[in-house]
Amino acid sequence: MDIKCPHCSRTVPAENINIQTSIAKCGSCNAVFGFADKVPGASAFGPSKRTVEMPSNYTVANEGADLVITRRWMNWKYVMMLVFCVFWDGFLVFWYSIAFSQGGPLAMKLFPVLHVAVGVFLTYSTLAGFLNRTKITLNTGELRIKHYPLPWPGNKVVPRPEIEQLFCEEIMHSNKNGTSYTYNLQAVKTGGGRLKLVSGMDKPEDALFLEQKIEGFLGITDRPVAGEMRPA
Ligand SMILES: [Zn+2]
């Protein structure tokens, strides 16, 4: 069974193909895609996942002529981050209370400046994780993306004609604690080039559901890239 990446049309190595979930990852361009509808007989190996079920952190609603998809950010990762922030920020408060109440040397006040910056960034990110949602509003004219209530980079308005295709990609993050993955939803622009629509999602299903929902509403059909060989 040969599965080709719908984005770059290279063959996907067997170890990147998950038969149970029918989700595959391209080793060349990191695109993530469902393949149950592309391979006749694939469903014989497991339940057909032609459509990705809506993850529990999503809501979908029709508001007039708009389709509104809302994705809640909260998950266990932010609980871990909260615990970390309590210790990190707590240590800094402790450090500075001593530095200022005991009249410590200037170096003691300047030393942790970088740690304060990290603490502010992590604490803000954690709060955003607990509170924020991403709202994707679709209509025939445009696609709007807004993160709220805490301000976060990545809000955008994309005119519908600029979107030719959508695809999901996997991003690998390696550090000393191991390897983790996040998933982005990208658009292929009509004039060429890519535009990142939503980034930092934790599960492939999060990104694939969004792709499927947006493509369905906008009437975009997953068409093979020129040169792609369809499995017989
Ligand atoms: Zn690819």
Q: Mind explaining what this structure looks like?
A:
- 28% of the residues lie in helices and 31% in strands.
- With 232 residues, it is an alpha+beta fold.
- It has 2 domains: 147 residues, no CATH class; 54 residues.
- Strand 1 and strand 2 form a beta hairpin.
- The radius of gyration is 22 Å and the shape is elongated.
- The C terminus is likely disordered.
- Bound molecules: zinc ion (ZN).
- The site of zinc ion (ZN) has 8 residues, from loops.
The largest sheet, given as strand count, sense and whether it forms a barrel, is:
6 strands, antiparallel
Mean pLDDT: 86
Q: Please give the count of helices.
A: 4
Low-confidence stretches: 42-49, 224-232
Number of strands: 11
Pattern of helices and strands: EEEEEHHHEEEEEEH
| Cα separation of the termini | 9 Å
Strand adjacency order, main sheet: 1-2-3-9-10-11
Structural class: alpha+beta
Molecules bound to protein: zinc ion
**Percentage of residues assigned to helices:** 25-40%
The value of Rg in angstroms is: 22 Å
3D shape: elongated
Q: How large a portion of the residues is in β-strands, by DSSP E?
A: 25-35%
Number of domains: 2
Q: Secondary-structure blueprint of this entry?
A:
Blueprint: E1 17-18, E2 23-25, E3 31-34, E4 58-63, E5 66-72, H1 76-101, H2 106-110, H3 113-131, E6 133-138, E7 142-148, E8 156-159, E9 163-175, E10 178-189, E11 194-201, H4 204-218
Antiparallel strand pairs: 1-2, 2-3, 3-9, 4-5, 5-6, 6-7, 7-8, 9-10, 10-11
Bound molecules: zinc ion (ZN).
